[in-house]
Amino acid sequence: MSFTQELNTRQDIQEDVIFPPGDLYSDEPPLETELHLEQILLLLKCLKWLWRDRNDFYAAGNLTIYYSPRQRKSEYFRGPDFFVVRGTERKIRKSWVVWQEDGKYPNVIVEILSPKTADTDKNLKKQIYQDTFRTPDYFWFDPDTLEFAGFHLVDGEYQPLEPNAQGHLWSQQLNLYLGIYQGLLRFFTSACKLVPTPEEEAERLAAKLRELNIDPDTI
After folding, report:
1. For residues 191 and 200, is the Cβ–Cβ distance under 8 A?
2. Which of 14, 42, 92, 142 could form an SS bridge with 113, CB 3.0 to 4.6 Å?
3. Alpha-carbon distance 77 to 211, whole Å?
4. Which residues contact 173 (CB under 8 A, 6 or more apart)?
5. What is the Cα–Cα distance from 20 to 205, expressed in whole angstroms?
6. How far is it, in rounded angstroms, from Cα 186 to Cα 195?
7. What are the two backbone dihedrals, phi and then psi, of residue 124, each rounded to the nearest 5 degrees?
8. Maximum CA pair distance of the chain?
9. φ and ψ at 169, to 5 degrees?
């Protein structure tokens, strides 16, 4: 095959589909912006801090999920920006391979929208997460426009979630709200309290000590 023919063949393949040649760590495309990376890491950090004493879940970001019924990594895979699987072992993984994980799919998925991915996230991926993954809770968030929406699977179809008075959306699977705080998507407890990062929690405790006239740096 000539170089020109090979180039034309590659162009015929959809942009969001990459066929990995073996056991890769992740075949996901580069993140759109630094803000996308910050958002994904923030969700991971907060949930892992909140659930630091739990070992029955797996949370990851921008990691490939392989779900081929023929157990082939060269077909049927997607890479959600953020996802959580409940009822599984908490350990480091190269990717999430459904047929190696007792057939488990994510319980929660969050996609971070961008002009390039928004249409796929709102349509094709939503359909796959509904019909194939059967993921109970699906959310998307645009860090540029602050567009935020969530869906819960009811009788096999996604139904839009209704926001509470603060504009937060409830995740039954996480037993947490998701909502916008200072321009980023964050978790909130059932009492609508912000789930902190470890750094925010440390600063809160330090401030409390200062109120008691205790220098936190001496402890």
Report:
1. no
2. 142
3. 52
4. 84, 86, 107, 108, 136, 137
5. 46
6. 7
7. -60, -50
8. 76
9. -115, 135
* Tens-place pLDDT, residues 125-136: 999 999 999 999
Of 47, 189, 33, 197, which is closest to residue 110 (Cα–Cα)? 47
Q: Mind spelling out the 3-state secondary structure of 72-136?
A: CCCCCEECCCEEEEECCCCCCCCCEEHHHCCCCCCCEEEEECCCCCHHHHHCHHHHHHHHHHCCC
Query: pLDDT tens digits for 78-126?
Result: 999 999 999 999 999 999 999 999 999 999 999 999 999 999 999 999 9
Q: How many CA atoms lie within 13 A of 104 on its CB side?
A: 17
pLDDT of residue 151: 98
Identify the CA nearest to 66 among candidates 117, 10, 112, 27. 27
- The DSSP output letter for 138 is E
Instruction: Report pTM.
Output: 0.82
Q: Locate tokens 């015929």: which residue?
A: 12
Helix/strand/coil (H, E, C) string of 30-57? CCCCHHHHHHHHHHHHHHHHHCCCCCCE
Q: With beta carbons less than 8 A apart as the criterion, state whether 86 and 112 touch.
A: no
Q: pLDDT under 50 in the chain at which residues?
A: 1-27
pLDDT (0 to 100) of residue 203: 82
